[in-house]
Design goal:
The chain is of the alpha/beta class and about 500 residues long. The chain contains 15 helices and 19 strands.
């Protein structure tokens, strides 16, 4: 393994963030710590003394993507354009013993519970935890990989329950007007296909006062849209003994948003078996909480759901969805499904196709089942219950075609009736020539309605003769669509944020 050239101080760092929004929050926090310490954050990896890669290791495909990025950075180090390579995040937490075999050029490793030590890792300070972490094997110049939250707390002398890490002081990578707000970390559900509990640990809720302090910081920094994230947001507060739970936290956050003149609060990562009537009522009644819910269902067949250990069934799911439609006016429901779960039959797949056609989800994603070592479903896959890859590909096509038919029909209906929506402007696009009906000399903006979450949902293209700025909310009417995306034009300007 190469040694760090300590005779020259590290002055600049480039950062690569991979994976989900929760990982993005970790990256933003580490960037904030690095900037606070005086390190220059470089946009170009070729101009940085050190490169940090915050990895994803949730699925096999994510692992391979992370390794590819790590090896590209290692090549920069070999050619002399980079002096230190730091790898952090889920891949480190899950595969710590193998990473140095896969890429010996790594200088430092940080687990998911150790992001507060990023400055030491980048600057190359020695680590007292390296020897114990690697059990006598050759270790990088710095490593800090607490096996779980309990050990991380013990090392830092922290007592009490819940999510103790501070997410304030982030150097945000999102546009100024939109941000992610993590309300908890970890998960207690233990679905048979999922590795999250083994990587991120048990559910740990962030205390309400910490959430409000972070939201205050984000609002003060110009954020208008806060996307509330966690592995299981509906179980918020259970580990703290916080009786008001998610409803109490949403109510406090809604009040704070009102004090700042209003906001879009979007709930993500709801767990269906934990969604209560009180939570549905909160979505319907709280002024700043959007009529939007991201609720991964994973399947609809009872036998598959039982094998997945989802703690719910078709009847309960349909009852929940009907309540959401009936009690939250204009709600948009986003979900995800897994295709090719071990043992999934053609009949079970066909049941899911019919369900998608019948329910009419606003947004839907389908993932091919990924066999993960150490999970019960992974063992099923290895012991003869695997679904052929070609079959999975065909099934995904059928599922997405069923969703496409519903979305395209809905978009066409909205265009014909010129449905009105408030649209949050994200920025101008050069794509305007491809937008149907664009006026010569006008502008085309990327935007999103309340029904469209950032990064994962379709967009709304706003054609305008007038200039707008990112963060403006514009009342628009739909005049067309391009596949999943809407095309709209302003009716009048509502507000400037």
């Amino acid at each position: 393994m190469s040694e760090d050239p300590t005779h020259t101080a590290i002055e600049s760092v480039a950062f690569v963030s991979l994976g989900c929004p929760k990982n993005l929050v970790d990256s933003e926090k580490m960037l904030g710590l690095l900037a606070e310490d005086g390190l220059i954050v470089a946009a170009d990896e070729s101009e940085a003394d050190a490169i940090v890669i915050n990895t994803c290791g949730f699925l096999e495909a994510a692992k391979e993507e992370s390794l590819e990025v790590i090896r590209e950075a290692a090549e920069r180090k070999d050619t002399g354009t980079c002096r230190r390579l730091i790898v952090a995040g889920c891949l480190v937490q899950r595969h710590r013993a193998k990473l140095l075999q896969w890429c010996p050029q790594i200088d430092a490793l940080l687990g998911v519970f150790d992001r507060d030590r990023i400055v030491n890792a980048v600057r190359g300070e020695s680590s007292a935890t390296a020897e114990s972490t690697f059990a006598g094997r050759d270790a990088p110049a710095y490593s800090s990989i607490a096996a779980n939250d309990t050990l991380a707390r013990r090392e830092r002398g922290i007592t009490g329950a819940g999510y103790h890490e501070a997410d304030t002081g982030r150097l945000r990578l999102t546009p100024r007007h939109t941000a992610y707000l993590r309300i908890g970390e970890g998960c207690n559900q233990h679905c048979t296909f999922c590795t999250i509990p083994s990587i991120r640990g048990k559910m740990r809720s962030k205390p309400v006062e910490h959430i409000l302090a972070e939201a205050t910081e984000l609002f003060s920094d110009g954020a208008f849209e806060l996307n509330l994230i966690g592995q299981d947001t509906t179980s918020y507060g259970d580990d703290l003994g916080y009786e008001p739970g998610l409803v109490g936290m949403l109510s406090a956050l809604d009040q704070l948003a009102g004090e700042f003149g209003g906001a879009w609060l979007r709930l993500m990562y709801a767990y269906p078996s934990c969604m209560t009537d009180a939570m549905i009522d909160a979505l319907a009644s709280l002024e700043n909480v959007l009529p939007y819910l991201d609720i991964p269902l994973q399947h609809i067949n009872d036998d598959v759901l039982n094998t997945m250990r989802r703690r719910t069934g078709r009847r309960q799911i349909e009852s929940l969805l009907d309540k959401l439609r009936d009690r939250v006016p204009g709600i948009a429901i986003r979900t995800t499904f897994i295709s090719g779960f071990p043992g999934e039959t053609d009949a079970q797949h066909d049941e899911l196709v019919r369900f998608i056609r019948d329910f009419d989800f606003e947004h839907l994603g389908v993932f091919a089942y990924s066999p993960e070592p150490g999970t019960p479903a992974g063992s099923m896959h290895a012991k003869g219950q695997a679904v052929d890859d070609a079959v999975i590909a065909r099934r995904i096509d059928e599922l997405m075609l069923a969703q496409q038919e519903r979305v395209f029909a809905r978009n066409q209906h909205w265009a014909e009736r010129q449905q009105e929506f408030d649209v949050l402007i994200d920025g101008e696009t050069e794509r305007g020539e491809g937008a149907e009906g664009r006026r010569d000399g006008g502008y085309v903006y990327l935007g999103r309605t309340k029904h469209q979450a950032p990064q994962i949902d379709p967009l709304t293209y706003v054609q305008s003769e007038n200039p707008y700025s990112p963060g403006e909310v514009v009342r628009c009417r739909v005049i067309g669509h391009e596949n999943y995306d809407l095309i709209a034009e302003p009716m009048k300007r509502l507000s400037v944020l």
